[in-house]
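TOKENISE THE FOLD
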Amino acid sequence: MAATTRKTSPGYRCTECGWTAVKWVGRCGECQAWGTVMEAGAAPAGPATKATSVTTPATPLPDVSAAAASRSATGVGEFDRVLGGGLVPGAVILLAGEPGVGKSTLLLDVAARTARAGGRVLYVTGEESAGQVRLRAERIGALEQEVLLAAETDLGAVLAHLDHAEPTLVMIDSIQTIASAQIEGTPGGVGQVREVSSALIQAAKTRGLPMVLVGHVTKDGSVAGPRIVEHLVDVVCHFEGDQHSPLRLLRALKNRFGSVDEVGCFQLVDTGIESVSDPSGLFLSREAESVPGTCPTITIDGKRPLPAEIQALVAPSALANPRRATSGVDGPRVAMLLAVLHRRVGLAVAADDVYVSTVGGARVTEPAADVALALALASARADVPVRSNWAAVGEVALSGAVRPVSATAQRVAEAARLGFTDVIVPASTETGRLPAGVRVHPVTSVAQAVALALPRD
């Protein structure tokens, strides 16, 4: 009797997310990336994996112990805040950011604080030499005996270090520099990154060892490498900041152990990096005398209320086409508000140069800052300062109406904590019980807000 042969069909796999297809397509059906579906060789038509014996019986969910998932604080308050309270045993964290933003400095600070608390940290560097890392650690005061440094680029050597050092925390800087001798391709390639990530994640899970992987970013700011890495890890954090500002923000784009709405604030200093639990001083100028063209507002970044001060300057233009320059705010949003102010309030700036900026390099993109932006423009045009200790929140519609925004009560409470005595809010929002020392002024239109905030003789 002739032996039967299993039919095979060509297999195609997306190099970004691992999605498979029986025929080639130009666009991945899972991650929607173009040109990433490649032939993966012959794949069996029927199932190749058979049922085997059970190694560990299934446990009722109430009987599963939660002690193994208890968190341990790193000592860096803002880092713990983003993670949801600290490191979870076996958790794998992917930290991405642009070159020079301060990723290695942050990790060295975390490593030093963990060592001082009685832990042992294995820091694997593949981008820098051991001497370079030592100089940075000396500059930020992170020279600790229990911080073990290994300059390795081979995956097998990294796994051997895990067995030899027996650390309580592992940091890999970076995942794109580690390569496996069992996989063809250069370090940082799709196959290498996938293999290295899988091996390191498996090692972290089997040992119950928290691990931080540093990743590169692409030109558009996304995490470099195959998207499957982001699916495999437990937490994806993005470290961002402007090179001209010492402020750094840490955001969680994915977190299996906590919320993704938390934002951590840091400040780069000469001695390293510092957590900023109250960043209000970075975003508010708080000058002794009120200056025309400035208006504070309270933004919400994730779940965190952050103050921002918007500054505007309106000056006569000598050009046929007046300038419209913005920094920290959305340019098309400013153009829309200028049109609304011209049509609904009678503020004519067609022949003037208009400059709008924020204090401290803050980035204000949410519509809740529209009223503050409109007040700053009106104040600059009239050369009359906004009333002292006033702030404003609200979205401005094309009709000139002030629309409600989310978390108004939280914004008002933050304004009261910062010392503001009056806050302009949309009329159709509930502020709840007001904190002591603050008054709210509900408005229905931007013209009403301008009349309230700008004193008249």
User: Anything to note?
Assistant: Residues 283-453 form a domain with the Ribosomal Protein S5; domain 2 fold (CATH 3.30.230.10). Confidence is low (pLDDT under 50) at residues 1-8. The longest strand covers residues 304-316.
